[in-house]
Amino acid sequence: MNTTMNTSAALSLAKRSAVAAVLAITTLALNACGVDTVQERSKPTMTQDQAKKLIDSYQTDILANLPIKPVSSPTSFSDLECDANDVDPHGRKQTWRSATFDDLQLPDRTRAADTFRTYLTGRGFQPVESDAHIGWLKMKNPKDNFVAILDDAGDTSRTFQLEVISPCLWPDGTPLA
């Protein structure tokens, strides 16, 4: 009888260990697949109109502090759906606006990039590493996830753009039903 109890206890312990291992592996897999991200996506955000006002504010401040001026007024806002190929929920948008600088010699572009980096770092932005595009300087504000990019700052085309981009947000601030 003692052997039966030991065998039974061993089987019970083995079953519990197996269940615990399966749960741990499942939890790791779900976390890796973005369960937290799905929960994050389902939270309310600022509205698209609020994001546009903040983009205008950031862009105005950055332009006022750059040693160069754009050739024209900032473009109209552009919108793009976020996570179109990702898991639900869908319907969040990202909005951005750009300003173009033209006919800039390399020393002017270099000075503008240095000023851009210094100014935004002073405002709490942090550099974002990206292998996708060598010619840009990308900075992100960790407090609100807005991104500012000086695109083609290292290019020889003598033209580059300042882009300010919102994080993904719900157009009306709340997830779609």
Task: Provide keyphrases for this structure.
single chain; 177 residues; alpha+beta; six-stranded antiparallel beta sheet; 4 helices
SSE pattern: HHHEEHEEEE
Gyration radius (Cα, Å) is: 25 Å
The number of distinct β-strands equals 6
Through-space gap between termini = 60 Å
**Beta content:** 15-25%
Provide the low-confidence segments as ranges.
Answer: 13-36
Q: What is the subunit organization of this protein?
A: single chain
Main beta sheet, described? 6 strands, antiparallel
Number of helices, counting only DSSP H or I runs of 4 residues or more: 4
Mean pLDDT: 76
The outline comes out as elongated
Structural class category: alpha+beta
Helix content: 40-55%
Give the neighbour order of strands across the main sheet. Answer: 1-2-6-5-4-3
Structure notes:
There is one protein chain. The chain has four helices and six strands; from the N terminus they run H-H-H-E-E-H-E-E-E-E. The chain is elongated, with a radius of gyration of 25 Å. A six-stranded antiparallel beta sheet has the order 1-2-6-5-4-3. The chain is α+β, with helices and mostly antiparallel strands and 177 residues long. The longest helix has 31 residues. About 14% of the residues have low confidence.
